[in-house]
Design a protein that fits this description.
By secondary structure, this protein is mainly alpha-helical. The protein has helices at residues 3-25, 29-35, 37-55, 61-66, 72-84, 91-116.
Length: 122
């Protein structure tokens, strides 16, 4: 793995952790998410930044191909929805991504970084 991939995987993991931290600070579930614009914006920003690491080529295609267990296309797809069709976001889909997919992504990225980055400290 090259240093650039490591750097952006760490960045991606930081955004995953920050987004999950925001999510966990709120206890109102999807109802709160649907009704509070600031909460939506904060979580949407996190999703956008996570996807930015994939969509802009920061994480190399070679690395993505070697680690197909991570759903790179879905990460990029969610980023595209947030960036280009914000009013069209399906709240239940975004909520599922935030609650189901992000914790799984955190585990996958942590495992990769523990294996590949000698300086990684979770």
């Amino acid at each position: 793995m090259n240093k650039k991939d490591l750097r952006y995987l760490n960045t991606m993991l930081n955004y995953v952790n920050q987004t999950l931290e925001i999510l966990n600070k709120h206890s109102g579930g999807i109802t709160e998410f649907i009704n509070e614009t600031e909460y939506q914006f904060a979580l949407a920003f996190g999703l956008m930044q996570i996807g930015e690491q994939v969509s802009t080529g920061k994480i190399s295609r070679e690395f993505q191909d070697e680690h197909s267990e991570i759903t790179w296309a879905k990460i990029n797809g969610m980023r595209n929805i947030v960036v280009h069709t914000y009013e069209g976001i399906e709240y239940t889909d975004a909520w599922g991504t935030l609650n189901d997919s992000l914790p799984e992504l955190r585990t996958q990225l942590t495992t990769l970084l523990q294996k590949e980055d000698p300086d990684f400290n979770d």
